[in-house]
Amino acid sequence: MTKQHANWSPYDNNGGTCVAIAGSDYCVIAADTRMSTGYSILSRDYSKIHKLADKAVLSSSGFQADVKALQKVLKSRHLIYQHQHNKQMSCPAMAQLLSNTLYFKRFFPYYAFNVLGGLDEEGKGCVFTYDAVGSYERVGYGAQGSGSTLIMPFLDNQLKSPSPLLLPKQDSNTPLSEAEAVDLVKTVFASATERDIYTGDKLEIMILKADGIKTELMDLRKD
Amino acid sequence: MKLDTSGFETSMPVIGFGSNSEMLDGVSSVPSFDLPRTTDFDGFQKKSVEMVKPAKGTTTLAFIFKEGVMVAADSRASMGGYISSQSVKKIIEINPYMLGTMAGGAADCQFWHRNLGIKCRLHELANKRRISVSGASKLLANMLYSYRGMGLSVGTMIAGWDETGPGLYYVDNEGGRLKGDRFSVGSGSPYAYGVLDSGYKFDMSIEEASELARRSIYHATFRDGASGGVASVYHVGPQGWTKLSGDDVGELHYHYYPVAPATAEHVMEEAA
């Protein structure tokens, strides 16, 4: 008699795409607002972007229940940090905390594909991309989620910056202005919506600067 | 199954309250890995590895020569057939005189090398002297051995300079640990070995050795689809490590094999 395998999986994929671009003194984080399961849409208005600290904003696609749990853990760890150190966590510190939090569930992973955006200690934009178990690196721009394979090649074409591994060391942030970066993000999502069934409905854009966070909403195709 | 969670032990004092403080749960107690509650652990790991698709495919190499240890690696991370990054740091700076290379699961290598760096520093503080390369590699190997069979993917080389001179060890997720003079790890390693072994001499200068290392990585990226990006070369000497070069392999190709300009057969002349 053949062994019966479980038909129930603890994971599901709710789709969606997240993008972040780092500039000289700003960071743009954007995500669509469609949440789906299989071929059905659960919500057209679900935000995938979450502010963790003044200078660190997390955007995650994948299994939103795991994303929610991850956000809760990070939020409470940040609160403890604030009580102990009397200041907000910097973006690079939050990046390492996220990496460790993901790796602690190495044998039962958070099904979350994350992009962390913010401003570093010098006020320059920074973006960190992650895989599901916590490996991370600082980059000039990043995309994760169902539309990432459509978006990344285009961002490589427009924003490709010298690798941070080259010697002498070069800056990986884009020289684009904030308005140009926001425009690029809108273009990129409009294109991804055309060809990815899990991306669409609305686009939420958060622009992080030293003086605060601005949010913008743009309509995308709802089909 | 008792896992060795000493990797997570913190020497920070427990803050106030005691074990029933909800806010500090998971912070004050020694954290441990969450395990899925399933009867088929191996099957679950197999499925979750497919889902997670950890970054693999790489070329790293290291060799000992007269002037110390030369360490080199590419920078491509692939998830299945998709290149997830061309700028991964595969040479990890454990401390100012020891380097580790990354091959296999990116998160596994990053996490355990950071953990090793912490342990090496604690050793220094406890014993008032630097840890040897042999000791550091043993710490890592023992830690990985305790997670044997659980699906970690780590193929690393620990290179450093200690009191006995240059040291190079290969450590993998099976808990294996080998001392040696020349190693190459990853999907591109056969190609790298070909170039490295044929050009190797113990009495090389630093420039010759770094050129050999760079060339080996370049040739591996040329033939192996899972390797590419930037070829980084580091040197470990008695004063510690220094990064010698980081070159895009696309540019290295034209540097080694420049395209000869085609001779024009007809010359266009201005219409009189």
UniProtKB/TrEMBL annotation, chain A:
Family statement: Belongs to the peptidase T1B family.
Record's keyword terms, sorted: Cytoplasm, Nucleus, Proteasome
Oligomer status and interactors: Component of the proteasome complex. Component of the 20S core complex of the 26S proteasome. The 26S proteasome is composed of a core protease (CP), known as the 20S proteasome, capped at one or both ends by the 19S regulatory particle (RP/PA700). The 20S proteasome core is composed of 28 subunits that are arranged in four stacked rings, resulting in a barrel-shaped structure. The two end rings are each formed by seven alpha subunits, and the two central rings are each formed by seven beta subunits. The catalytic chamber with the active sites is on the inside of the barrel.
InterPro entries: Ntn_hydrolases_N, Proteasome_bsu_CS, Proteasome_sua/b, Proteasome_suB-type
Keyword Nucleus annotated: yes
Organism: Capsella rubella
Primary localization class, coarse: cytoplasm
Name of protein: Proteasome subunit beta
Subcellular location: Cytoplasm; Nucleus
Highest taxon above the source species: Eukaryota
Keyword set includes Cytoplasm: yes
GO cellular component terms attached to this protein's record: cytoplasm; nucleus; proteasome core complex
Role played: Component of the proteasome, a multicatalytic proteinase complex which is characterized by its ability to cleave peptides with Arg, Phe, Tyr, Leu, and Glu adjacent to the leaving group at neutral or slightly basic pH. The proteasome has an ATP-dependent proteolytic activity.
GO BP term, pick one: proteolysis involved in protein catabolic process
From TrEMBL, chain B:
Keyword Nucleus attached: yes
Claim: Protease is one of the keywords in the record: yes
Reactions it catalyzes: Cleavage of peptide bonds with very broad specificity
Alphabetized InterPro entries for the sequence: Ntn_hydrolases_N, Pept_T1A_subB, Proteasome_bsu_CS, Proteasome_sua/b, Proteasome_suB-type
Family: Belongs to the peptidase T1B family.
Keyword field: Cytoplasm, Hydrolase, Nucleus, Protease, Proteasome, Threonine protease, Zymogen
UniProt subcellular location: Cytoplasm; Nucleus
Record's function text: Component of the proteasome, a multicatalytic proteinase complex which is characterized by its ability to cleave peptides with Arg, Phe, Tyr, Leu, and Glu adjacent to the leaving group at neutral or slightly basic pH. The proteasome has an ATP-dependent proteolytic activity.
A cellular component term, taken from the record's GO annotations: proteasome complex
Complexes and interactors: Component of the proteasome complex.
Name used for this protein in its record: Proteasome subunit beta
Transmembrane regions: none
